[in-house]
């Protein structure tokens, strides 16, 4: 009880403070301290249970709470410090210090590992963090295995289902963004290794619907793709703008125009073609300019229709060639008849001259 009387003497006017010394633990504000020192405040307002004060001032001066653990340690093993900035203005940096690894437990200096600035920026391995979280080193969040297979992972941050998972597999170079821990809807990135670099997007059935790969075949196996537009008009690919390509291949068209060459094809006459153009202003089976402006056209279908017209034109050309050949033959025959007629005319003139001489002699 001598210790208790001495403590009561020093607190003097603080008669309202209840101090209890049990021989093992000391309590302030409590009669049943459970630790070496326990401070209890019973108040409806915010309470400060313990304050450490350094009333002097030197540039980067600190007030610290130190910890020493282990029987072989003669120096602190860690501390928490409130550090005044160099200008002496209000606004301290709160630093958390730990010993560096070393062989002599009494010679390892304390190094600031975590820093919190007055603006709320938190630095890990950085004394003056420039962001709300500034880390100098590798970050591991979530479940880290002991096999070094996961270098970085965020998994179930709030502990509930449906949270986003970010996982980096060190050896395979896989990065996943997932809705939950089971297979299904997720985005996977693969970097390095013997495989190609790629990105996969899976659906809920664990099927790859989108793949972008560095050296293989990329594809979209679900939905439509719009470039420069969100409205593909129901087509697998919708592009708002121009497309440049060295070569474009259209898959085999089911209604290719070779039917024009079949014997039962009803080839319109040129007179019928002329009449249709006069009435409609365009070729039959070819969309008008207004229709193309409104609805566009299908490239494969248009190629087939244009080929149909080329094949029809080929038939017209063949027919005209036959007619020209016939006319040329007729002209040749007429020319021969003309030459024969001229020869007969000459023979007739000779006979006529002979007959005239004979008559004169008589």
> What summary fits the major beta sheet?
7 strands, antiparallel
Strand segment tally: 18
Mean pLDDT: 79
Supply Rg: 50 Å
- Largest sheet: spatial strand order: 10-11-12-13-14-15-16
The total count of helices amounts to: 4
Record the SSE blueprint:
Elements: H1 2-11, E1 19-21, E2 26-28, E3 37-39, E4 62-67, E5 78-84, E6 92-99, E7 110-116, E8 122-124, E9 133-135, E10 150-154, E11 165-169, E12 174-178, E13 186-190, E14 198-202, E15 208-213, E16 219-220, E17 225-227, E18 237-239, H2 270-280, H3 289-295, H4 299-361
Parallel strand pairs: 2-3, 8-9, 17-18
Antiparallel strand pairs: 1-2, 4-5, 5-6, 6-7, 7-8, 10-11, 11-12, 12-13, 13-14, 14-15, 15-16
Short description:
Helix content is 25%, strand content 23%.
Question: Could you describe the 3D structure shown?
Answer:
The chain is built from four helices and 18 strands. It has helices at 2-11, 270-280, 289-295, 299-361, and strands spanning 19-21, 26-28, 37-39, 62-67, 78-84, 92-99, 110-116, 122-124, 133-135, 150-154, 165-169, 174-178, 186-190, 198-202, 208-213, 219-220, 225-227, 237-239. It has a seven-stranded antiparallel β-sheet, with no helix packed on it. Strands 4-5-6-7-8-9 form a six-stranded mixed β-sheet, with no helix packed on it. A three-stranded mixed β-sheet has the order 1-2-3, covered by helices on one side. Strand 7 (110-116) and strand 8 form a beta hairpin. The longest helix is centred in the C-terminal third of the chain and has 63 residues, at 299-361. Mean pLDDT is 79; it is low at 1-16.
